[in-house]
């Protein structure tokens, strides 16, 4: 049997015993009337709909239920009393991932459900990565375009992208996230996505609460927003910047800070955006903070940022191996906190 619960949504519960029995051989099975199908706790691993969708009230109820199942990425088998092309299209439009005749042998329905769940589990990490990168890229595009044109920042959109990023790294692994992000054609977006993925991995390793994870990944996603106002010839220069160019580049933390401050961003995120280039020995910028004046979020973010910059791929340089990047971080004694660097190394070496 599979771990988890399969739900059978029906408009004829008195006639569902045989199907319920067969599904219970696959996983724990819960029968739910169609008009109570919004109650989907705990989230099932799969669902079977045995409902007459020609009825307006049933179709309306199933549309809401299927929408919630789709958000949870749950496979849904729809048993149809009308197997016409229109009937199957309507069921798929509602959110069915598989359509079978209502006359299908219950044992076959159960076997199909098992196949659907196993296939879903195999494909979920890849889908999760694609969704997370797509959602975050959309947010970054809006943010950077808005910053260039001086439009207001929408933190609501930013917050909506955080859980998909964290879920992608948790379910698909950081290696898959990095492999997908490295195909991005915009270097600044790529770097923000890399730092967000690394921050998600680090926060999961450290056992952060959900709220703390969201705050940390939000700061990672937004940390380089100020680069939207840096001239492209400086931002995309393949070689080392000269002193004048570096002076301009080093204005990006304050630019991002001011932009997000005007949007009412929280203090932790603002601190990480402004100070992610500060060093414990006071050698960083823009405010030359040192020691205890640098908070924990900034200390963590700086490590994630440097590691991502070292290991990211560019047209003019290959990605630095993890071991070499960690050696560089470990050699930054007095500038980075040793204890956090050691913990970070454990997170990066702790599987994918």
- What is the percent of helical residues? 55-70%
Q: Roughly what is the average pLDDT, rounded to an integer?
A: 90
Report, as a whole number of angstroms, the end-to-end distance. Answer: 28 Å
Could you describe the largest sheet, including whether it forms a barrel? 5 strands, parallel
Concise synopsis of the structure shown:
With 352 residues, this protein is α/β, with parallel strands linked by helices. The chain has helices spanning 17-24, 56-71, 85-94, 106-148, 155-172, 174-181, 187-205, 210-222, 232-235, 243-249, 252-262, 267-275, 296-311, 322-331, 338-349; strands at residues 5-10, 28-33, 46-50, 76-80, 98-101.
Explain what you see:
This protein has helices spanning 17-24, 56-71, 85-94, 106-148, 155-172, 174-181, 187-205, 210-222, 232-235, 243-249, 252-262, 267-275, 296-311, 322-331, 338-349; strands at 5-10, 28-33, 46-50, 76-80, 98-101. With 352 residues, the protein is α/β, with parallel strands linked by helices. The chain is built from 15 helices and five strands. The mean pLDDT is 90. It is elongated and about 75 Å long. Helix 5 crosses helix 8, helix 6 (174-181) packs antiparallel against helix 7 and helix 11 (252-262) packs antiparallel against helix 12. A five-stranded parallel β-sheet has the order 2-1-3-4-5, sandwiched between helices.
């Amino acid at each position: 049997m599979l771990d988890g619960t399969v739900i059978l949504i029906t408009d004829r519960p008195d006639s569902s015993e045989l199907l319920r029995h067969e599904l219970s051989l696959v996983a724990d099975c819960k029968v739910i009337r169609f008009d109570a199908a919004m109650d989907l706790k705990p989230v099932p691993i799969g669902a079977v709909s045995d409902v007459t969708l020609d009825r307006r009230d049933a179709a309306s109820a199933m549309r809401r239920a299927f929408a919630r199942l789709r958000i949870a990425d749950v496979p849904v088998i729809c048993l149809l009393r009308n197997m016409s092309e229109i009937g199957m299209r309507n069921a798929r439009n509602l959110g069915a991932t598989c359509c079978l005749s209502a006359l299908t042998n219950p044992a076959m329905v159960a076997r199909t459900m098992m196949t659907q769940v196993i296939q879903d589990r195999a494909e979920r990490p890849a889908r999760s990565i694609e969704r997370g990168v797509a959602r975050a890229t959309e947010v970054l595009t809006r943010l950077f375009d808005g910053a260039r044109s001086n439009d207001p920042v929408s933190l609501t959109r930013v917050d909506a992208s955080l859980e998909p990023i964290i879920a992608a790294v948790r379910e698909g692994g950081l290696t898959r996230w990095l492999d997908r992000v490295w195909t991005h054609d915009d270097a600044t977006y790529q770097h923000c996505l890399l730092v967000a993925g690394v921050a998600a991995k680090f926060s999961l390793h450290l056992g952060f609460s959900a709220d703390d994870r969201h705050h940390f990944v939000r700061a990672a996603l937004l940390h380089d927003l100020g680069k939207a106002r840096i001239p492209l010839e400086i931002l995309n220069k393949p070689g080392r910047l000269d002193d004048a160019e570096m002076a301009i580049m080093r204005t990006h933390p304050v630019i991002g800070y001011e932009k997000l401050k005007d949007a009412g961003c929280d203090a932790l995120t603002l601190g990480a955006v402004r100070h992610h280039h500060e060093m414990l020995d006071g050698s960083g910028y823009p405010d030359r903070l040192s020691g205890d004046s640098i908070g924990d979020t900034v200390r963590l973010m700086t490590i994630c940022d440097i590691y991502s910059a070292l290991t990211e791929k560019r047209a003019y340089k290959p990605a630095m191996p993890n071991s070499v990047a960690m050696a560089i971080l470990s050699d930054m004694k007095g500038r980075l906190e040793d204890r956090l660097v050691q913990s970070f190394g454990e997170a990066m070496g702790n599987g994918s």
